[in-house]
Amino acid sequence: MALARFIEAHGGVILTNKWIKGLIVENGKCAGVECEDGSSYRAEKAILSTIHIKHLIDMAPRELWGQDFIDGVDTWKAGLTLFETNYATTEPPKYAVAGGRSRRCIPE
Question: Which of 15, 17, 30, 47 has the fewest CB atoms within 10 Å, i.e. is most exposed?
Answer without folding.
Answer: 17
